[in-house]
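Here comes a specimen:
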Amino acid sequence: MTQATPKLRLVVIGNGMAGCRAVEEVLKRDPDRYAVTIFGAEPRVNYNRIMLSPVLAGEKAFEDIVINDEAWYRDNGITLHAGRAVTAIDLAARKVFAEGGLEIGYDKLILATGSDPFRLPLPGGDLKGVVTFRDLDDVNAMLAASAEPDARAVVIGGGLLGLEAAYGLARRGMAATVVHLMDVLMERQLDESAGYLLREALADRGVETVLGAHSEEIVGADGQVTGLKLKDGRVLPCDLLVMAVGIRPNTTLAKAAGLTVNRGVAVDDAMRTSDPDVFAVGECVEHRGQCYGLVAPIWEMCRALAQALTDGEGAYQGSVLSTRLKVSGVDVFSAGKFAGGEGCEDIVFRDAARGVYKRVVIEDGKVAGAVLFGDAADGGWYFDLMKAGADVAGIRETLIFGQAITEGLSGLDPSAAVAAMPDTQEICGCNGVCKGAITSAITAQGLTTLDDVRAVTKASASCGSCTPLVEQVLKLTLGDGFQAQTGPKPICKCSPKTHGDVRRAIVDQGLKSMPAVMQALEWSTPDGCASCRPALNYYLLCAWPGEYRDDKQSRYINERVHANIQKDGTYSVVPRMWGGMTSPAELRAIADVAEKFAIPAVKVTGGQRIDLLGVKKDDLPAVWADLNAAGMVSGHAYAKGLRTVKTCVGSDWCRFGTQDSTGLGMRLEKFLWGSWAPAKVKLAVSGCPRNCAEATCKDFGVVCVDSGYEIHIGGAAGLHIQGTQVLTRVATEDEAVWVIAAAMQLYREEGWYLERVYKWMDRVGLESIRAQVTDPDQRRALYDRFVYSQRFARIDPWAERVAGRHNEEFTPMSRRMEFVPA
C-alpha cells in the first residue's frame, strides 16, 4: 500500500483579511497541498475590518462582519492559534516561535502582519481615553466612552478612517469633531470641491470639522483626557480622543528575522520576500516601492501569491487605486489622477439641487482620474476605462453624464444627442421641465429667445446650470431662426454667472468658501481658474470679514509677496507715508536699508512716497524688518485696495489753504489703509480749489473750500483719463470721513473685481451712489460695515511675514530642499 505524500507545512502569521484570503486562494487552486496553521494576535476569528465603522455606528453587530467562522477553519483542516502572537522567526531553521513557548516549523511562510496605527508623539498621549481605530478592541473602547451622558469626542485625522470613526461616534450620540492638518478632508482622495461637499455632508450628520489645525498637546485631569490643545491656542474639550492619522506597515518580525525591509517588507511580483520560502501579503508589504492600505490591492496580491504557492507564476503588477467612502449616506468615489495637472483636461458636472459633483480628468485622450460626490454609480465604469487605457475622444461630449447616456448616444455629436433625447427627458431639474414641454412651448407660442423660454416654461430660470442644454433645444427647434443671446459678461469661462450674480448669491445664500460658491453656482471646472479665483477670493473677503480666510494662492504674485515684481525678477518696496508726510528718522531708515541691501534705485513716486527698486526676493523679509523697526508699514503699492492719500500742505503752511488738508489726508489714510477693494483705490485731499494735490483725477477726492469740503468721485489718470464728479458737500471733517468711508464700502460691496471706481460709477449711476451715501441711515450702515471689516484688514502684512507667516514664499527652493527629510 502506497503511503500518501505528506502535506507541506504552510504557516501564516496574521489572521486578518489578507492572511485568510491568501489561504482561501491557495485552497481554491490546490486544497490538498498544504497543512495550514494560522496565528492571530486577536482572540477571535477573521472579520472584516472595513466594516468596523458600521459596528461602531450601531448598524451591525460583530457577528455580521465575520468573514471566516470557526467552521471554516475546521472544515479546511486549518489549525488556528487565536490570541497568540508570534514573537520570532528563525529563517535558517524555518521555524516560528509564539507566545507560551510554542514552536512550529514551516516549509512555506506567509507574513500577513498588516499595519499599526500611527500615534502622534503629543504630550498627554498616554492619558486614559486616548485610543486608535484599528480593531474590535478599539471599537469596544469607543463604545464604552460613548455610553457616558453628554460625552464629547475629538478625532485627529480627516482621512478615511478618521471620518468613519467620527461618523460612528456621532451616530452613538457623541458630539464629534474631526481635527485635520490639511485644508481639505481626504486630500489624498478628494479635490477641494469634493472635500467641501463631504465636509457639508458630515456637518448634516452631526460631525464638526476643524481644518488646517495643528495639534499641540492632549490635555487631561486625574489621568483622563479632557481636551485637545491646538497650536493657535484653542482647546477642544473631549472625553474621548481618537488618533486616526495614518498607518505604517508592521515589519517588526520581518526586520528582526533579517528579511529585507524598506517602508514595508520588500517583495517581488510573486509576493516573495528576500527569503525564497517566505512570502508576504497585505498592508505590511512594499511592492515596487509602493505600500497599499486599501483592500482591492490586497485581493490582487493574494491571487498572485496563491499562484506562486501552487506551481504557478505570480504576476502582481501593482494596483490602480480607487476609493469609495463607507460613511452611510455619503456617496463618494475617487480614482487615479483625480487632481489633474499639467497636460490634463477637466470635465466637470455639478447639480446643486441634488448635491452632486463629478470631475473626470482626461490626459492624452484617456481617463486619468475621477472624483464623484453624491452620485458615484458610474465610479466603476470610469475606473474600468482608466485601467484599460481606453481612448475616450469619441465619447468626450457625454462622458461626464455616465455610462448609460454615453453608451446610448455613442457616436453622436452634441446636437444629435439632444435630438435623440426623448420628450420625457428632464432638462431642468430645479423646475422639473422636460424636453417635450420646451419644444411644445417654442412651437406653439413662437418663442425665439432664452428669456422667452424661461418666462413660459421656467426652464433654466433657477440655478441656470441647464442653460446650455436649453439653448441647444432652442437651437434645434428653431434651426436657422436661432440667434444666440448676448448680455452681461460672465465672470469667466468656468461659469455663465455674471459678477453680479455671484456677489448676490454669496450674500443671499450665505456661501462662505470658494468650494461652496462653485458648488452652489455649479462651476464647470473643479477649482476655478486664474480669472475667477481672485475675484471669488475678494468677494468672500468682502462679504464675510473675520469669517472667510484669505486664500493666498488665489492672489497674484505681487499680493502674495506684498511687493511689486519688476521685469528682471526683483521687487520694489514702498513703505507707507501717511498723507505724504515723513520724518528724518524714516528717511534715514530708508537710506540705511538701501545701502545695507545694495538696492540699486531709490525713486520718489507720484503718490508722495519713496520706492526702493531692485530688492531680491530673498531679502524682502529682512528689508521689511528694518523698515518695521523704524515704525514703517507696507504701502500696499501692489494691492487691489487703498494705495495712497495724496495731500497738499493746506492751511498749516499755504496762504491759500482753507482747511487742514494734510491732517485730513493722514486721518483718511490711517483709517482706510489695509482695506481690500475690487481694484486699486487712490485718494487725494487738496486744501483749496487750486487743487495742488490733483484730487479731481483720483478715485475719491476732497477739495477743501471755505464752507467745508467737496467730496469727489470717479476720477482716473492712467490709461483712461477722467475727471471726477461731485458726490456731495459737507461742512465738517468728520462728515467728510463718514461719506468717503461709506462710498468706499459701497464700492467694495457693489464693484466687480478689477472694475475701477469710475467704471463702477458709470455702471450703477452717480445718483444711486449719492442717494445711499447722503441718506443718514444708509450712510451709517455702510460706515459701520466698513469699520467692522477694518478690524480684520488693518494689519501690516510685512510684520506678519517678518514673524514667519507664509515663509515658504521667500525661501529659495535650493534652501528648502536642505530641510526635507531623506
Observations:
- The chain has six domains: 8-115+249-309, 119-245, 331-411, 426-548, 557-634, 642-793.
